[in-house]
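Q: Got a minute? One more chain.
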Amino acid sequence: MKPGHKDEWTGYRYYTQQDIVRLNTVRALQMMDLSLKEIKEVLSWEDLEKLIAFFDETEKKADKKIETLRLGKKKIQAAKADYERKLKWRESKSAGVTIKELPERVILLSDTLESPTLDNLWNYLSNFYGKMSPGQKEQFYFEDLAGIYAEDDWQRLFALCIRYTDIPGIRKLPAGRYLCANCTQEEREETVRELKEEARSDYKAEADFSVQLVILSGILQWDYEVQVYIGPSA
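A: Always. Here it is, folded:
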């Protein structure tokens, strides 16, 4: 960039408004990955229509680049959120596995639902009332929570009963001590495996089942508290 005027006494360089436009154009074209040599050639064109057509095409490329960056930012944000959730899980895990004394619990298993989704968590208990006759509905009352009951490779969603009657799908969880740990969806299977291994090695307990309570961790997001039975209360 050559100044529009240079003071011969002070050496100060003065730029005109047109010079500033040219400088901003050079900077903008650099951001579009053009070399200074290419930019110099473009700005030397005297065909104004050719210049306007060039800038029109460059503007379209800029719009495409902005959209690509916007999508890239969304992916980065999603990845960041995922790693933050993993960090949260590791920090909670570093506090150690806890042992909880829990009373006998009665659960009603779903006939078909195996894993939580946005659809089946919305108005969750309707999935269970929907399988009952009108007379049975009056005999049931559930706690406001969701969870997974799992045995080996088999699992079903369940509702925790406060009031109930014996119907197919009722399962009683024994009172006693449970190894408990919080985890994310990604770490759920590994956490179940680790708790069962700890139950076997440290407490000589063969865990036949696991309970995985759904814990809401944000809008449209949830984690789990995994519980593995290790025996009756001390």
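A: Residues 4 and 17 are 9 Å apart (CA to CA).
Q: Perfect, thanks.
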